[in-house]
Structures are given as C-alpha cells and as structure tokens.
Specification:
single chain, 200 residues, mainly alpha
Length: 200
C-alpha cells in the first residue's frame, strides 16, 4: 500500500490544529487531550497485537480523526468525523483501501461498539482504555459535566455510580491485549465504584 511515510505525523498536526482552532470549552471530555490519549492507546495496543506498519498506520489515523466530528455536531459525530477524515486523506492522495479502513474503524467506535476487523477492535479498545486506568474517576467526572452541558443530562451521585457500574459491567474489550490485561484493571475500577455505592 503506497502512501506518504509521514502520514500519521501530518494527520496529528492537522487534527491538533483543527481542535485548537475550534476549541469548545464545553467539551470537557471529548477534546484534544482525549484524542491524544486514544492515539497513544492505539499505538500501544497495535504493537501488542503485532500489527504490521500499514495496519498500525490505519489505526493511528483513525484514532486521530475519530472525534473530530465534535467540532461540527455532538450527536452522530462519527459521521462528521468520517467526512473530515475522508476529505483530508483524499487531499493527501491516500489510497482508497487505507481510507476505507480508517472510516470503518471510526464507525466501529459508535456506541454500542461493533468492531469486526482487528483494526476496528484495536481502536475500540483504545477509545475506552480509560475504563482500565486509575484516572477513570476523574475522566468520568469530566464526562458527567459535559453531558450536563451538552445534553442536559443530570445525575445524582448515586445514579452516576450506578450508571458507571452498569456500563463497565456490560462493556467488554475486544483485543487479546484488552482481554488479558485491560479487563482485570477495569474490574478493579468496578470494585471501587461498588464500594462507593455501598457508602451512599
């Protein structure tokens, strides 16, 4: 597959500029920091899954663009993200095969996740990698505030704890790395939330 060797670097620079220029202070969770975290997660999981270079590039490109649609709309942002990614990749003269892979990965992150290929599974796991991280509680607080601002959703502390326990309990990681390592770390966060639940 032929495409510029520095395509991921150029994509990162482009998306960073896009998100900075269209900075929305109301997006407390879905912002540049989240995007960079997903890119890092995608790189790590892709390496653990032993993807080849073209596969890694497809996943990383998708990670950079997966939430860019938020600069235009909150609902159905995946569709807007795919349009932004497609337009930029076509402009960079990237082959249609790679573009299709990137767009499929972005689509797979739509909730509930339904990844098919290993590339889609890697991005889906990277997108929700924070469920298995110590900062999960802080990150979810940002999401709670974002939903309140953008969607008008409000939760009591007890409702929010229950919502998180339910979501993490039904969620599953898709890759070998996710199942082997991330699931256990996520379970630790679930146990912590359940302790909070008992204290309420």
């Amino acid at each position: 597959m032929n495409y510029p060797k520095d395509i991921c670097f150029k994509a990162g620079r482009h998306v960073t500029q896009l998100l900075v220029e269209n900075f929305n202070p109301q997006l407390l969770f879905h912002n540049l920091q989240h995007t960079i975290s997903v890119v890092r997660g995608a790189r790590k999981i892709a390496k653990k899954e032993k993807l080849d270079k073209s596969q890694k590039d497809a996943v990383v490109l998708a990670a950079w663009f997966h939430d860019t649609g938020y600069v235009h709309q909150y609902g159905e942002h995946e569709e807007a993200s795919k349009e932004i990614a497609s337009a930029w990749l076509i402009g960079e003269k990237v082959e249609s095969e790679l573009i299709d892979q990137v767009l499929a990965c972005i689509q797979a992150t739509r909730m509930p996740q339904k990844p098919n290929s290993i590339l889609e599974k890697v991005l889906c796991d990277a997108d929700l990698m924070h469920l298995a991280q110590p900062e999960y509680f802080h990150v979810q607080r940002l999401l709670l505030e974002e939903w309140k601002i953008m969607l008008g959703r409000t939760y009591t502390p007890q409702e929010w704890i229950s919502e998180n326990i339910k979501f993490m309990g039904t969620h599953k990681y898709w890759t070998v790395y996710g199942k082997k390592y991330l699931e256990d770390l996520k379970e630790q966060n679930i146990k912590l939330f359940k302790k909070l639940n008992l204290k309420e």
